[in-house]
Amino acid sequence: MSAPREAMVASRRLDSQLKRERVVAAADARLAAGHELSIAAIARHAGVSRKFIYTHPDLRSQIEQRARRATAPTNESAADGGVTVASLQADLANAKAHNSRLRQQLRALEQRFSEALGRDIAEQLEPPAERRDELRRELQDAQAQVFELQEQLADAREELDAVREINRELLAQHNRPVH
């Protein structure tokens, strides 16, 4: 191999090694900051392409191992009450289920409240039993009085019609020429 070619290969190996170190450092930094270890985020942080990480399976495997270690609970973190991604996800799922149950309870309580309020209003609007009987009698009396008044009105109309007829006849006799 020629000297320039060997120098170029050595330079590429060195560049690749530096990129690998930057990727590992970026993964460690993201892990320490509590960020997720996605390939895209690590590549962006390290200043390399995602393809670089994907074309180096050992590097990708190293990142995945670090991510697993970060999410797996250790005896020390469990004893300290440390929080893991899995425990946070479980807490989130439990909170969502709890919220759903609370929403259902709220709807049921609203329905019961609405029904109770409706009964209260109906009781307030509806008179008591003893008053209902009195109101029924008053209604019957009023209906009887209306019937009597209608009969009186009909009689008065008949009389008025008779008086008008007599008045027409008298006017007709009075206006007839005398012979």
In short:
This protein has helices at 3-33, 39-46, 50-54, 57-71, 75-79, 85-125, 129-174.
Q: What is the fold's blueprint, element by element?
A:
Elements: H1 3-33, H2 39-46, H3 50-54, H4 57-71, H5 75-79, H6 85-125, H7 129-174
Helix pairs in contact: 1-2, 1-4
Would you give an account of this structure?
The chain is an all-alpha fold and 179 residues long. Among the domains are: 63 residues; 38 residues. Helix content is 84%, strand content 0%. The chain contains 7 helices and no strands. α1 crosses α2. The longest helix has 46 residues. The radius of gyration is 50 Å and the shape is rod-shaped. The N and C termini lie far apart (164 Å). The mean pLDDT is 86.
Number of helices, counting only DSSP H or I runs of 4 residues or more: 7
Low-confidence stretches: none
* Largest beta-sheet details: none
**Class based on secondary structure composition and strand pairing:** mainly alpha
Helix content: over 70%
Distance between the termini: 164 Å
Would you report the number of β strands? 0
- Mean pLDDT comes to 86
Q: Over the alpha carbons, how many angstroms does the gyration radius reach?
A: 50 Å
| Helix and strand element order | HHHHHHH
Strand content: under 5%
Give the overall form: rod-shaped
Structure keywords:
179 residues, rod-shaped, mainly alpha, 84% helix
